[in-house]
Specification:
Elements (H helix, E strand, L loop, with lengths): L1 H11 L6 E5 L2 E4 L31 H9 L4 H19 L2 E8 L6 E9 L4 E5 H6 L12 H13 L3 H23 L11 E6 L2 E9 L4 E11 L3 E10 L7 E9 L1
Parallel strand pairs: 2-10
Antiparallel strand pairs: 1-2, 3-8, 4-7, 4-9, 5-8, 6-7, 9-10
Length: 256
């Protein structure tokens, strides 16, 4: 769904209603609730009670039995549900995160290296990579005999409805073609030889060649996703050529 994809990408760049407070290396946020969505419902078997009275002459018990026999296996459905829940949690349950490195010393810092290690309950992603993710492919459903009966019923009332339906399908295929072309026009992220940012699962590694006195460097494009309620701590290790030992601090998370 193109509209849903646009909404998803917009959410990646905003905090929405998940962020409660953010100050002094403390972040309080809500956990995205993904359990209320029933992804299995569409794979429920059909019986004659599912058929409305005006359609019963178009649907037989044999049609329903054949449909139920052709449904995906429980294992296929369960795997899809887990993947879909993970996908929705990532798309809708994260926060855009900016890592700000400040040089409050009296001289320029060189070969600055910042390592942020999150607990296993919090994942880190690059926003650009998350935006490219597509929803997991759903197991295919067999042709629904009730939907087929509905089409036969409508066609009986209006013989021209089949013609109009074919026109709609042609229009949507044209729109999909333009959407795929438009995606190729998106700007690519620009990287610099003077800085780098690596993000993988529970770690962020940010590096810059130098940071002048009283200057700040912001590393953006980071996206964090909590998977559990509770209080957690991310460890931040700051090192540069001028340090003998790394400087350690922490970011406190409270997920409600």
């Amino acid at each position: 769904d193109q509209q849903e994809d646009k909404k998803d990408k917009k959410k990646l760049k905003t905090h929405g209603e998940l962020l409660i407070a953010n100050s002094d290396n403390r972040i309080k946020m809500k956990l995205y609730n993904n359990e209320s969505v029933d992804y299995k419902n569409r794979y429920a078997p059909l019986d004659i009670s599912c058929v409305e009275s005006h359609l019963k002459k178009y649907v037989s018990e044999a049609d329903l039995s054949a449909y139920n026999s052709a449904l995906p296996s429980e294992e296929e459905i369960d795997t899809y549900v887990k993947k879909m829940q993970a996908y929705r949690t990532i798309i809708e349950g994260g926060l855009a995160f900016k890592l700000l490195v400040s040089n409050e010393g009296t001289a320029k810092a060189t070969d600055v290296r910042v390592l942020v290690t999150f607990p296993e309950e919090i994942f880190a992603f690059e926003i650009g990579n998350v935006e490219k993710q597509k929803a997991p492919e759903a197991p295919k459903l067999p042709e629904n005999p009730i939907e087929k009966a509905e089409q036969r019923f409508v066609t009986g009332l209006n013989p021209l409805s089949r013609y109009f339906k074919s026109l709609e399908e042609d229009s949507f295929s044209s729109l999909n073609a333009w959407a795929s072309v438009d995606a190729l026009l998106l700007d690519k992220p620009v990287t610099s030889v003077f800085e780098s940012l690596e993000i993988q699962n529970h770690e962020i590694l940010a590096e810059c060649r130098e940071l002048p006195h009283r200057y700040d460097k912001a590393f953006e494009g980071i996206y964090i996703v909590p998977t559990k309620k509770g209080k957690f701590r991310a460890k931040v290790s700051l090192m540069c050529s001028e340090y003998v030992e790394p400087e350690i601090c922490y970011i406190e998370f409270e997920v409600l």
